[in-house]
Amino acid sequence: MAGGKKRKGKKLDVDFKNTALTDALQTQDMAAIAFALRHGPTVVPLMRPGDADDPRDVGEVWTYRDPNTGEIALLLFSDAAHKPETLPPHIALQSPQWLRAFLDRHRDEITTVFIDIAGPHPIQASPVDLLAALDA
Predict the structure, then answer these.
(1) pTM of the entire structure?
(2) Would you say 20 and 32 are in contact if contact means Cβ atoms under 8 Å apart?
């Protein structure tokens, strides 16, 4: 999927990554991470993929609920290659505007956001902190 996907005989050339975000995570430069989130896409795991024929259908975002506490985490990735195989196989490449709207809509349910949780350079932030970074 990372190299593109087929839809009705056409190959879509889509890279499921944000190179600027990958680079910023490597240096743990918070200003560069915020810039990359504001200006580039984010890889989002999906429970259900969107309908390729309906651009309004972005699919159903997958979140992690801690079985002990019930807290909900949103997992985001700088590159589809960093998504663990144990997560659902479907992904979407979402815009900064989508991320801002999603975090704003679910800020009371989501307790934390992990970016590249399995590495190579993971970070964790609150939805409020990410919203502030997206609004800066």
Answers:
(1) 0.86
(2) yes
Domain ranges of the chain: 11-47+58-135
The sign one gets for the Cα dihedral 122, 123, 124, 128 is negative
Q: Quick one: fold of 11-47+58-135?
A: Trna Endonuclease; Chain: A, domain 1 (3.40.1350)
Amino acid of residue 8: K
Q: Which two tokens stand for residue 61?
A: 């975002």
Positive or negative, the CA dihedral 119, 124, 127, 131 is negative
SS3 108: coil
Q: Over its length of 136 residues, how does the chain's per-residue pLDDT go in tens digits? A: 344 444 444 444 568 999 999 999 999 999 999 999 999 999 999 999 988 898 888 899 999 999 999 999 999 999 999 999 999 999 999 999 999 999 999 999 999 999 999 999 999 999 999 999 999 8
What CA–CA distance (Å, rounded) separates 103 from 74? 9
Residues constituting the chain: 136
